[in-house]
Amino acid sequence: TTCFWKGHRINIIDTPGHVDFTVEVERSLRVLDGSVAVFCAVGGVEPQSETVWNQSNKYNVPKIAFVNKMDRTGADFFGVVKGIEDILQGNPVPVQIPIGSEDSFQGVIDLIEMNAVYYDEQNEGKDIRKDQIPPKLQEDAKTYRNSMLEKLAAYDEAFMKQYVENPNSLTTDQIIQVLRTATIANKLVPVLCGAAFKNKGVQQLLDAVNLFLPSPLDLPPVKGTRPDNQQEEVIRRADYKEPFCGLAFKIQSDPHMGKLVYLRIYSGFLETGSYVLNATRKKKERVGRIVRMHANQRENIDVAFAGEIVAIVGLSNTFTGDTLCAVDDPILLEAISFPCPVVSLSIAPKSRADQDKMGRALARLAEEDPTFLVTTDEETQETLLTGMGELHLEIIVDRLKEEYGVGCIVGQPKGAYRETILKPAEAEGKYIRQTGGRGQYGHVLFKIAPTPAGSGFKFIDSIKGGAIPKSFIPAIEKGVIEAMRKGVYAGYPVVDVEVELVDGSFHEVDSSELAFRIAASIGFKEAFLKAEPVLLEPYMSLQVTSPEEYVNS
Fold first, then answer.
1. Quick check: pTM over 0.85?
2. C-alpha closest to that of 427 among 530, 534, 518
3. Count of domains observed in the chain
C-alpha cells in the first residue's frame, strides 16, 4: 500500500515471515530502499529472522527494528536487542526503552528527546501524551541514552568531540542526523518497541521511518548495462528528468483487471498510454493503466514518478525480474535471483472438464511465483507441483480450488524406483506365429547376471556357429532394452544387469527383426524373474553447512 505520514509518502510492502515464502521477501528487498524488521518481544530472534536479515544484508537495505507485542506475557525488550546483536551480528541501538512490560506496558521512554510517551487506553493508543520520565526509570534512561550517544560518536568525529567535551549540549537534531547517516550507511539499527495491535508505538515507528530510513534521493544511482552491450555501464538517478527505468518485481492475476505487473520506478516518470521497452525481452509494451495498490483496492493514476511503486495493466510480455525503460534510451538492470524449489507433490484433475481449467490456472500461478514450478514426470507421466515447502504448495492447491474452481486430486509423487537382480539366471525366449503365409520365428537363450551399482547395462553377444545371423543381433539387444525400460518386477526401469546371448535358433523364411525383438523381450523377462529381482529406492547426496560450534568433534 501507499500512505502519507507527516508530509512523506511511504510505499509499504508487507512480506510473510514463513520460510516457504522467501520469494516474497527476496523480490521485495530487491526494490525497497529501507526495511522495518519486526520481532516478537516473547519469541525474540527466530530462525527465520536470521534468513530474512541475511537477505536484507545481501541487498544492503538499511533497517530499523521494531520489538512488537510488548504487552504479551514473557515480553523481553532487552533480550531481543541482545539477540539482534549476538545472533544476527547486527549493531542495534535502542532509541526507546519500554515503560513496563506485559500487562503493565504503558508506553516508552524516548532516548533522543528524553521524555516519556504514554498511549491513551480509551481510544486504543491513537492519542499520545508526552510527560516527564518516571523517577524510577531516570537512571536507566540516562544509561541507555549514553550508550546510544557512544555508539553514534563512533560514526561522526565532530559529534564525538562534542560528546566528549559536553554531552548535554548535543541537540535532538544533531542526534537524529547522525543516527540517520549511520542507519542509511548500514552501520547500525535503531530499535523501537510497542504493541501494534493496540496502536502503541505505531506513531513513533512511522516517525522513525521518516527520520532514519532513506528516501530514493539518499541512495546511490542504480546501475545497469545496455541491452545490446553488456560492457557499457549505464547510470540512472532518482530524478523525474532522467530517462524512465523500472523493475518488474511481481506479477499478479486480478479477476477484474487481468494481469497486473508491479513496478518499482527508479528514474524518470511513466504515463498512462505511453510505450516502454522491455529491455530483458527486447519488446515494446504499451502502458494500459497505472494503479496504486492498497491491498485489494486500486487507485487509478495518470502518471507515476521515480521512487514510486505502482501496478501496471496491459503489459502482456512482461514477467518477474524484467527491466522496463525508455524506448530511446535503453538500460538493463540486474535481474532478481530466486532460490530453487525443493518440495513436490502430484496433482490430477478430478474430471475431464477440470483438465483444461487446471492447465490454465497452473500457468497463471507459475507466472506469479518464480519459486513454483509445474512439470511432467517423464517416467510416471504425473503432473508435479514443486515449491519451497509444504505450506507453499498447500496454499497453491487452495487457490486452485477457491479462486479458479478446479477440482483436483493431490498426492505424493510416485517414487523413482529402479529394478535390479541379486543372482545370475538363464532362460529362453521363443516367439512363433504361423498364420498361413509367411510366419514369425525368433528363439534366444540368455544368461543374465547382476553388475556393480551404477555400472549400467551390458550386452554380450556369445553366439557361435551362426546359430543366429549377425543381422538379427541388434534387434535382440533392442528387445532387451525395451523390456528393461518398461520394467519386469514392478514396472520400473531395470538397471545394473549384464545380458549374455548364448544360443538360439532361426528360420530361413519366417525369422525377422520383429520376431527376434519380441523373443528377446520374452527371454529377458523370464530370466529376470528367476534372478531374485529387487526394488532399488532412490538416494541422494547432500551437503550440510553448519557453524563450527554446532559440529561434533
1. no
2. 530
3. 4
